[in-house]
Amino acid sequence: MQLRVLPVGDPRLRQKSDPIAGATPELRELAENMIETMRGHDGVGLAAPQVGVSKRVIVTAVPVRDGLSEEQESDAESDKAWVTEVINPVIVEGDGEIRCEEGCLSVPEMTVDVDRFDRVVIEGLDRHGEPMQFEARGFYAVIFQHEIDHLDGITLLSRLGSLKRGLYLKKLKKLQRDGSGSTAGAS
Questions:
Q1: CB of 142 within 8 A of CB of 44?
Q2: DSSP readout, 108-128?
Q3: Residues whose CB is less than 8 angstroms from the CB of residue 39 and which lie 6 or more positions away in sequence, other chains included
Q4: pTM for the whole thing?
Q5: 163 — alpha (psi -120 to 50), left (phi > 0) or beta?
Q6: Where do runs of H (alpha helix) occur along 15-158?
Q7: What is the pLDDT of residues 52-106, one digit of tens each?
Q8: Whose CA is closest to 42, among 87, 9, 5?
Q9: Phi-psi group of 126: left, alpha or beta (phi > 0 → left; psi -120 to 50 → alpha; rest → beta)
Q10: 84-95 and 119-125: which strand pairing?
């Protein structure tokens, strides 16, 4: 079942999410619904707060292969098949720097250049509650960092200066007033 993606401005997007004690059937159902929602919006990632659930769970449309998440040429051919779910994700190590233009399902009609770690090591639990650890590099590292930001109440608007944020909010209000605003975006 597709869930409603909360738009920027919803106060739930600015709240820090609660850790999850363990995997449950309800949590697996939430993750499945989040995957369907992410795919339905052509996103590459989604965090539970974006669908109004204050829990530390993310889903991404990128693979983790043998403890490594790194873009490969063959990924583009089968990108719809990839899904990684992480419960209580934590970045335990990060280095290097990459600047990436990011979009967001909760922040429509906007992209922001964000400086991120080029390599991160993430620990968490898989959908069965088993510990997992993997390394993500490049664009895939950016995706995981973006989704983990959502768990901490950080949106792309948080990454803008006050002038740009004000201009964007004005533009968004006009789009919503004119009926042409959408909640589609990247992650």
A1: no
A2: EEEEEEEEE-SEEEEEEE-TT
A3: 61, 80
A4: 0.88
A5: alpha
A6: 25-40, 138-151
A7: 999 999 999 999 999 999 988 777 665 556 899 999 999 999 999 999 999 999 9
A8: 5
A9: beta
A10: antiparallel
**Count of domains observed in the chain:** 1
Which residues are CB-neighbours of 23 under 8 A, at least 6 positions away? Answer: 87, 125, 126, 127, 128, 129
At 182 the pLDDT is 45
- Whose structure tokens read 């069965």? 128
Structural domain that includes position 96? 11-178
Q: Look up tokens 């697996």; give the residue.
A: 28
Residues serving a catalytic function are: 147
The answer to which of 12-16, 105-109, 154-158, 174-178 has the lowest mean pLDDT is: 174-178
User: Average pLDDT of the chain?
Assistant: 89
CATH number at 93 reads 3.90.45.10
